[in-house]
């Protein structure tokens, strides 16, 4: 055959340590039909500060693959919520082969066509809280690339027609495909008139949706005469691929004929006719039990005189179990993103007769509906059982309804199908099923009522069970509960939802309490973070006593908003918010930085130098507000104004030192008992905040941060200068001129005016 190679790539993305599905990176690909091989090239490299991160540690990267919907992963081995079905997926772990780069390859032979999703993440870390911009973090970037090779011009088989084929000695196999429409109960593939050097040295393989593999349904035509391969309950509205493969080492040419028969379950004792009128080719679905036949989607083209295809009528007997029942549609009502209700006509209460199943179809839109959770709920009306021991079984399957020919069977599995089983009876009248990230397409629910006897389940007589049926699509499972938040995430143009848990709770629906915080622990952490702000009361008292009223107002502002911000910022249920979270956070950050600003400006003692020192206070408020609005967690946006204030203080102290010709402040007691202890306490607080704080110790390390910062303010805040009581009012000199008065008490920065002799020197 002729192969065509397609290439797809995605932009590199930064990977994060796994905490929940909201922290993974999701990539969406689309594999075309008739693809024989798909190769994912997984490229991972390190970066640090815009360069290659050769010094970054090697951290393993886990990649998940799934067809049809995102992978439901559980790397932390947490518990899933009750009644949750977990679909499987492929997983691959990448290890580093070079200091800053590694690659991995994942091959899929004959992949299923349609949407494929890749999910990648780093291992869970210790949860260290790092200050943004303090140092260059190691970034692990992941870029997947997809190369597909697909066949073109695959021969199409038409039901009821025979295709002749001669396989040359250098050819190994021949590939065909046939489209299976809805309401098909059986696909029968047969090899006719096979002639070769050693009888019929052929293998016959059949597979749905993609070309067959070595483990697909196989039949050896040497051992079976006639060479017929049947597929019961095939997937509706899909291509079936037929591979005729020659045994290795067979010489010469092998000629054969291949034909396909599709059994129409809506037409008892009839196979699908080879030709249908154009009005039937619309493939209209059944509605409430209409008995009309359904057509094949595509009619065969006109037959040319030299065409090797010609109809061969083959009678097919429809077995009792191959009869299909009417499929009742559902009405789709979209309320919001991933919030869809499926209503049943003349429902939600449905009647399940004793002699036949009730079948319903739920259609999920491609791509749009695969990022949520499909919920199904059955509730049995016990009063409708009339005292009989009736059990209603529900079987949910994707692609085709599963109705077994055995009325006593309670399984939802066949050789090629696997579904989800639900059951309700008088004892357990409620049953639920949740499927996170369901595959899109048609889901079929088959309900049957059976009576329990000593010999197992048997068909009921004259008992019609009534069941309340509810089917809907939701973003998350139970909205993630009280200890989680349902987040709507986006990767390129694909939307999906995931839970982000808090307070130590884990799991897909935040229901795993193995590491959950107790109520007492939550209350203790909240009280520590809030009450530690009371340490600002002494600095407020010192500021008021020293007549620093503006500074005292800033400290009160900081204490108030820090207390209520941490009361609102708690992850558990001990939460109290007086305002919106964003407002409280902004005011808390602004108050903290303004406290540093006004304290440093007060230490600079600019009043004799800059008569309007209040301009600096207003300038600081505006600069800090701008920096917080730009990036509240950026290091230099927050550290820049603080360093600017320290620079002003250093210039003021240097000017006084040069003018006075001795160090300022001049007394060793001021340095030994106030400035040095205050600076050490502030430095310890900064070190704890920047290098020690983690998610586990946050509540007490951050409380210590509050205590140390407030304590350092009490030490660093300068005393207010007081005039000497021994000095009377200075006489005003008459005439033109000016007076320059220097208060040596203010220059010395003394706490008590009695420590040194005070002289006022006036120069005219």
TrEMBL record:
<protein>
    <submittedName>
        <fullName>TMM8B protein</fullName>
    </submittedName>
</protein>
<dbReference type="InterPro" id="IPR021910">
    <property type="entry name" value="NGX6/PGAP6/MYMK"/>
</dbReference>
<feature type="transmembrane region" description="Helical">
    <location>
        <begin position="573"/>
        <end position="597"/>
    </location>
</feature>
<feature type="transmembrane region" description="Helical">
    <location>
        <begin position="609"/>
        <end position="628"/>
    </location>
</feature>
<feature type="transmembrane region" description="Helical">
    <location>
        <begin position="698"/>
        <end position="717"/>
    </location>
</feature>
<feature type="transmembrane region" description="Helical">
    <location>
        <begin position="671"/>
        <end position="692"/>
    </location>
</feature>
<feature type="transmembrane region" description="Helical">
    <location>
        <begin position="548"/>
        <end position="567"/>
    </location>
</feature>
<feature type="transmembrane region" description="Helical">
    <location>
        <begin position="634"/>
        <end position="655"/>
    </location>
</feature>
<keyword id="KW-0812">Transmembrane</keyword>
<comment type="similarity">
    <text>Belongs to the TMEM8 family.</text>
</comment>
<dbReference type="GO" id="GO:0005886">
    <property type="term" value="C:plasma membrane"/>
</dbReference>
<keyword id="KW-0472">Membrane</keyword>
<feature type="domain" description="EGF-like">
    <location>
        <begin position="499"/>
        <end position="510"/>
    </location>
</feature>
<keyword id="KW-1003">Cell membrane</keyword>
<keyword id="KW-1133">Transmembrane helix</keyword>
<feature type="transmembrane region" description="Helical">
    <location>
        <begin position="516"/>
        <end position="536"/>
    </location>
</feature>
<dbReference type="InterPro" id="IPR000742">
    <property type="entry name" value="EGF"/>
</dbReference>
<dbReference type="Pfam" id="PF12036">
    <property type="entry name" value="DUF3522"/>
</dbReference>
